[in-house]
Amino acid sequence: MGTTRTQVGIIGAGPAGLLLAQILDKAGISTVILERRDRSYVEGRIRAGVLEQGTVDLMRAAGVGERLDREGLIHKGIYFSVDDVRTQIDLEELTGGRHVVVYGQTEVTKDLIAARLAAGGDLRFDCVDVTLHDVESDKPRLTYVSGDSEHEVVCDFIAGCDGFHGPSRQALPASLLKVYERVYPFGWLGILAQAPPVADELIYSRHPRGFALYSMRSMKVVRHYIQCLPDTDLEDWPDDRVWDELRLRLAPQDQHLLQTGKVFEKSVTPMRSFVAEPMRFGRLFLAGDAGHIVPPTGAKGLNLAASDVHYLSRALMAFYAENSEAGLDTYSETALARIWKAQRFSWWMTSMLHNFGPADDFDTRVRGAELAYVLSSRAAMTSLAENYVGLPF
Ligand code: FAS
Ligand code: PHB
Asked: Which of 9, 182, 189, 329 has the most CB atoms within 10 Å of its CB?
């Protein structure tokens, strides 16, 4: 068996694992990333689209902000379309100048992989059966199979950045692990298409036919979503039907703004809120989707992965630079404090904007009143804006 010795073994080459490795590498801390899929699969995954300022700052500090600064779209506000009225939430005005940047997760991942490889980082794809060993010892190990040979990575720490379906969370004993979960009765059918955006900023639409989101990746590529049943069969949704539904869920005076184009990606994302506590066990630390999932209504998933990496990288740097374990000992508590605030915001946005069906008319009315209040109150709009641009790390 081939053995590698490193300081931090990272499972997963998504945004969490790649950003963590990039930051630690710049601090002179050695890492090995073990990724199950191949590079093209990882770079081709279509996911998030909105970066908080904190995430942008972290990318810049990690030395991977150049293309993001060049190609990212600064968005100073977002729109809500409710009862045929489109209202702008002026994020910058309400938060004293803060905004978000529209830059696809695929681009974030490509930039981070390129930086890792350019730096000679140890980034291994096609790692099968990654298994965690001795996580309670001071020499935890990872084993995996590549091709037909077994490999071992001996490290000081393991960062579980392996997403919702990875093995890291399973390494916490059932007696210690507590999970909190809410599954929503709908999903999002998303398309990527070659078409101009509907408006200059994102439109979140609450409509009797169901929620819709009109987003973008550039001025020539759009990313739109419609609320759908969680088990929606894409066969039932040819492109024309998707475009028609997107048009119907806009205010009448905006429907002419929707331009169709060639759809080159279509998928259904289920909706859940999920938190695993604690996010540490021995020398294993969870970060990103391995520890939590949010409904994408608040554009928080990728950004929470970034804040986990911010806390974990600082803790690891303090350990190696000052032999201090304080950051490691408080990592789970610190990360979870911000995670739960993002969970609340994502749940709140999802509850306000989606159609939950006829189950409970009272709740439907309350949700409508909540949104009407937000759109009529500067105080409420300010609260929404400061959560949307991202609470401080
Ligand atoms: P990721 O899941 O991105 O990465 C985990 C990595 O670990 C993957 O590369 C995986 O292949 C690897 N891995 C898994 N098991 C492994 C194993 N056994 N061995 C080795 N490697 C393993 N967020 C938003 O903000 N907005 C959105 O619109 C949005 N849309 C989404 C749509 C979908 C379909 C999904 C699934 C998520 C979406 N998200 C969205 C959330 C998403 O962006 C995540 O928050 C983000 O990818 C989190 O990054 P990571 O924690 O790195 O996890
Ligand atoms: C996206 O562009 O993919 C996107 C934007 C905002 C969200 C969710 C997804 O809230």
From this structure: 9
Place of tokens 């068996």: 1
Give the pair of three-digit tokens for residue 81: 């379309």
Within 6 A (CB) of ligand 1 lie 11-17, 34-37, 42, 47-49, 105, 127, 130, 161-163, 165-167, 269, 288-289, 296, 299-302, 305
CATH 3.30.9.10 domain position(s) in the chain? 185-271+358-389
Tell me, what's the pLDDT at 149? 96
**What is the edge-to-edge ordering of all strands in the sheet holding 85-89?**
85-89, 78-82, 203-206, 212-216, 221-228, 178-194, 262-277, 292-293
How confident is the model over 47-55, as a mean pLDDT? 97
Distance, CA of 354 to CA of 368 (rounded, Å): 10
Decide yes or no: CATH 3.30.9.10 for domain 185-271+358-389.
Answer: yes
Percent of the chain with pLDDT over 70: 100
In this structure, CATH architecture of domain 2-75+100-180+272-349: 3-Layer(bba) Sandwich (3.50)
Strand partners of residue 158 = 9, 284
Query: Does the beta carbon of 20 sit less than 6 angstroms from any atom of ligand 2?
Result: no
Which residue in the list 99, 144, 296, 354 is annotated as catalytic?
296
pTM for this entry: 0.97
- Looking at the chain, the whole-number percentage of residues with pLDDT higher than 90 is 98
Catalytic residue among 300, 310, 311, 331: 300
Quick one: average pLDDT of 115-143? 98
SS3 content of the chain, % helix, strand, coil (to 5): 40, 30, 30
| Gap from CA of 300 to ligand 2 centroid (Å) | 9
